[in-house]
Amino acid sequence: MRTLLLLITIAHTGLAYDYLCYSCDNDPDSGGKFDPACGEDGYHGDYAYDNERTCYTNVHYDGSHRVERGLTENYEEDGSCYDTGYSVTCYCTAVIGYEPPLCNNNLCQHCSITPSPTTTYQPAITTTQLPTQPPTTQPPTTQPPTTTTHPPTSNQPPTQPGPLQCYSCLDCSIVSDGTKVETSEDFLTCFTAVELGSGHLVIRGGSPDYYEDGACRHEGEETFICYCGSNLCNSSPLVAAADDDDDGGYDDYDFAENDITFH
Questions:
Q1: Domain boundaries, position 82
Q2: Residue 37 pLDDT
Q3: What are the entry keywords (predicted)?
């Protein structure tokens, strides 16, 4: 009896445990655990276990309908969401032992994040104002001319010879020969994003939004993103850790010579 109580105590004190998360990818070329059903809401299929406590679901809204599920060593608040500009990642706290459904079985519906239309490149639009009177009675000098509206020059992407290739991965501080590459006619830029509040989680991918090569910006208070415009340009390593400032945030950043440097 005393031996049985000891075994029960060990099991419940965490001396031997595994956290479980669903683990799959509905992209057959991803190199991950392929399952065509991975994109279903309420997924119940392949899972992985480790001592990592955070599960995630990554849902692409770039038209590919790709869904990835797995676990990460970076701590994330239960229910938190992150928008990369082409996909949404939501996080939840893993459970010990197999008690389906596991927490990352949904499609991040609670995030309610959609692509921003304000940063999407728009082609030139030509409009002609119709005369208010028949042409025979309208003086030629007063007829409004045809006008053409162009976006600002700095927002027009350069001509790309063929589809753009970008590294595409989640939680990848460095890239290697095995890192997934995505190619799409819809990509106008590649990006590297650093999620500051989660141990500097690094996300790489392609974006349908155009930004000048080398441009960087903050996405909210917790994310810093840099963009580039050539094939596989988003391979920069995370070369230094960010320093906390006195307000509990982070100082400024540089993006030079394809390296992200934190000050």
A1: 15-111
A2: 95
A3: Signal
Which H or E run contains 2?
A: helix 2-12
Which regions of the chain does DSSP assign to beta strands (E)? 19-22, 24-25, 47-50, 54-60, 67-72, 81-83, 87-93, 95-96, 125-127, 147-149, 164-167, 169-170, 181-184, 189-195, 201-207, 216-219, 223-228, 253-256, 259-262
Do the Cβ atoms of 87 and 60 come closer than 8 Å?
yes
Beta strands in 94-200 (DSSP E): 95-96, 125-127, 147-149, 164-167, 169-170, 181-184, 189-195
- Report if residue 10 sits inside a domain: no
Phi/psi for 178 (5° steps) reads -90, 0
What is the C-alpha separation between 43 and 132, in angstroms, rounded?
Answer: 60
Which of 186, 146, 194, 138 lies closest to 166, judged by CA? 186
CATH number at residue 205: 2.10.60
Name the CA radius of gyration of the chain, rounded.
24
56 belongs to a structural domain: yes
Q: Return the higher-pLDDT residue of 175 and 147.
A: 175
Distance CA 256, CA 250 (A): 18
Model confidence band, residue 17 (pLDDT cutoffs 50, 70, 90): low
